[in-house]
Amino acid sequence: MNEEKKRIVDNFGRVHNYLRISLTDRCNLRCFYCMPEDGIELMEKESIMSLEEIIELSRTFRDLGVDTIRLTGGEPLVRKNFGYLVEELAKLGVTLKITTNGIMLDKYLDLFQKIGLKKINLSLDTLDKAKSVFITKRDYFDRIWNNILKALELDMEVKLNIVLIKGVNDKEINDFIGLTKDRNLTVKFIEFMPFKGNKWDWSKGVGKQEILDTVSEKFPNVIALENPKHSTSTNFKVKGHVGSFAIVSTITNPFCDTCNRIRITADGKMKNCLFANSETDLLTPLRKGAEIQDIIVNAIKTKKYSRDGMDVKMDADHYENNRSMISIGG
Ligand code: SAM
Ligand code: SF4
User: For ligand 2, is residue 101 a contact (CB within 6 Å)?
Assistant: First the structure.
């Protein structure tokens, strides 16, 4: 008898085909909205997935219907032997994507070309060098900017991730839109989200409507673009611009209805949602040689409909019990 192929489907019928893997909780930047001021307790080396374990888990998820894998962190490019890992993952036949701060991107652009990794999300919260030092506590702006230009020269699909914070970079919204005039890139504005230790307060956030109002003041011809089914952003462009812009409105307009995402932390815990407080350990059973397909398929059944149950508002008792973003993998 033909057994039906197992899929990762939650209790709301949402099929999960998109996996985000955090390769490390280490990072060469210290963005204040991501990394708590006092730092984090770094994962013990032995509790971090080895490259072979990442490949094996990825293969298991691929066999369960995952067709897209995004590598993230921490900073994924600081992971030792990253080149080997990405080449092996490319052999799985999934679409590979990466989210990076771009500092080490030049080292891997040739390899990305070779294996067909084209989609790069790159964090760049400001176009002002001094402000970049304030946000990231490091001085890498020029290097990151040059790497963005290199990626664009190679026709990579570049999205700039911008977490908007009032009084920090909210006055730069239209400078970022200006980048899209002649460049084939997307600038993606992300609403500031709460995680353990990041001193979140929505009065510091900039919401979707405010962003759209600001853009329309300077660029009256904003066109709404089609949003792919599982898109976590709403997409727009200014008429006549080569590039586009997007808004990730997790706080003011969550997009959970069609969520297809699962996350694995660098220590091998499956998270059903960015805001999930409960996690499922995949690494321990994997190390014991246990069958993990059923563990994954069962774990997704505990997924809540929206923001891990914070349907109406973000609740500090809830998000302070989550991890810090740097150790989740955004
Ligand atoms: N280091 C890589 C980078 O910065 O692109 C990948 C990891 S980082 C955690 C992934 C994304 O999460 C980045 O685009 C970052 O801006 C975003 N992020 C981190 N903390 C956030 C927060 N509190 N609210 C919204 N986005 C956040
Ligand atoms: Fe590092 Fe990315 Fe977090 Fe910045 S946002 S501290 S680059 S992991």
Answer: yes
